[in-house]
Amino acid sequence: MEEISFRYAIVKDAEMLSSLASETFWDTYRNDARLKHKHIKNYIKRAFNLKKIKSEITEQNTIFIIGENKEGQIGYSKLLLKSSENSIMGNNPMEISRIYLRKDFWGKKLGATLLQKCF
User: Fold this and answer.
1) Could you tell me the pTM of the whole model?
2) Which residue of 15, 53, 63, 74 is 20 to 30 Å from 26, comparing CA positions?
């Protein structure tokens, strides 16, 4: 199995992360018969634009973890510390808000590895 490394995103990663998030979201949902392509594309424009990603990276209670191999980024996760979701309880709650892999890495158990890095 190829070597994968993980790191926290920094502001200079915003453009790459915007592109990665858009790509992985599109690949995940584009074949879902319940969703229209125009709605997916509109969501991508709102949720993953460069300004929004830069803002999220700099938020104190938001952490992005980027998975990489020798060719580049393979996926990412977004964690929300001190989550305010009603279903998340505890003294120091954390929410895994997003976790996505590039399509080429689906089925290789790397999602489980990325999930483990979140903890």
Assistant:
1) 0.89
2) 63
8 A C-beta contact, residue 52 and residue 97: no
Q: Using an 8 Å Cβ cutoff, are 46 and 38 in contact? A: no
Which residue, chain included where needed, has tokens 């915007």? 18
Asked whether residue 1 carries a pLDDT value surpassing 60, the answer given is no
Contact 35, 29 (CB under 8 A): yes
Structure tokens that stand for 110 in this block: 């790397």
H helical segments located in 1-119 = 14-29, 37-47, 50-58, 110-118
Q: Per-residue pLDDT tens for 70-113?
A: 999 999 999 998 766 666 667 777 889 999 999 999 988 888 88
Q: CA 64 to CA 42: how far, in whole Å?
A: 22
Q: How far apart are CA 10 and CA 47, in angstroms?
A: 18
The total of other beta-carbon atoms located within 10 Å of residue 88's CB is: 13
Q: Name every residue whose Cβ is closer than 8 Å to that of residue 41 and which is 6 or more positions away in sequence.
A: 26
